[in-house]
Amino acid sequence: MTLQIGAVAPDFEAETTDGRIKFHDWIGDSWALLFSHPKDFTPVCTTELGTLARLKGEFDKRGVKLLGLSVDPVTKHALWAEDIRETQGAAPNYPMVGDTDLVVSKLYNMLPASTTGDANNRTAADNATVRTVFVIGPDKKVKLALAYPMTTGRNFDEILRVIDSLQLTAKHRVATPANWKQGEDVIIAGSVSDDEAKTIYPDGWKAPKPYIRIVPQPK
Predict the structure, then answer these.
(1) Are 120 and 187 within one domain?
(2) Do residues 99 and 69 touch, judged by C-beta distance below 8 A?
(3) What does DSSP assign to residue 11?
(4) Annotation marks residue 45 as catalytic
(5) Residue 158 included in any domain
(6) Out of 101, 118, 139, 194, which one is annotated catalytic?
(7) Of residues 45, 72, 99, 164, which has the active-site annotation?
(8) Which helix (H) or strand (E) holds 23?
């Protein structure tokens, strides 16, 4: 079972392709996206890492730091990066953790705590559950957790959409409806009474039902 939303993201120290980091210090006042991979030189992950490299500017605009993780060593990540550049048109432009001792994978419940051994003796199938995305806020708490099977590539446009919602709803007392996109109408949060809502939204709101109060997205 993955970490629950609202839980403090476990802190850790690890070697990355950009040097050693302490996770919470590395996040600082930013948001963070931690995304894991079961093994280097796997086909679906190769496409994902290249896609994320091309989208890095979109995450930068949102103040989101990117951190990849694979159970293989950092030296192997560097070799993989060349394949990613060649086949996907962009190599990782963000750090990648080398989780050879499986410490981070176990901390984040991607592998059972009882798992033994190191990366060299494990296959991608052994690490199939190391296919998770965590969005972590500046408060170091988990805001989103998604687990993917090895045969299904991740949709980073959807992850950007969710980050837009998370950042909006962290700032304003609203929620976003199904399939919401940046700039579309939102819903007044249930924690806001009608009396409060009249102060916040003096122009009123649309209410197809009393508990569905629709307003334009706050600026």
Answers:
(1) no
(2) yes
(3) P
(4) yes
(5) no
(6) 139
(7) 45
(8) helix 23-27
Conformation bin of residue 140: beta by default, left when phi > 0, alpha when psi is -120 to 50:
left
Cβ atoms of residues 93 and 58 within 8 Å: no
Q: What is the mean pLDDT of the chain?
A: 94
Q: Is residue 106 part of a domain?
A: yes
pTM beyond 0.90: yes
What pLDDT, in 10s, does the model give residues 143-201? 999 999 999 999 999 999 999 999 999 999 999 999 999 999 999 999 999 999 999 99
Answer yes or no: do 20 and 93 share one domain: yes
- Give the residue, 127 or 64, on which the prediction is more confident: 64
| Contact (Cβ atoms closer than 8 angstroms) between residue 96 and residue 50 | no
Domain interval for residue 182: 172-215
**CA–CA distances in Å: residue 157 to residues 21, 89, 113, 161:** 27, 18, 32, 6
Phi, psi angle pair for 201, to nearest 5°: -125, 75
Does 66 lie in the same domain as 32? yes
Mean per-residue pLDDT for 104-126? 82
Nearest to 149 by CA among 44, 5, 9: 44
Output the six-digit token pair for 84. 């990613």
Give the confidence band of 1 by pLDDT, cuts at 50, 70, 90. Answer: low
Q: What is the pLDDT of residue 127?
A: 78
Q: Mapping DSSP to helix (H, G, I), strand (E, B) and coil, where does residue 44 land?
A: helix
Looking up tokens 């399939």, which residue turns up? 179
Is residue 72 scored above 70 in pLDDT? yes
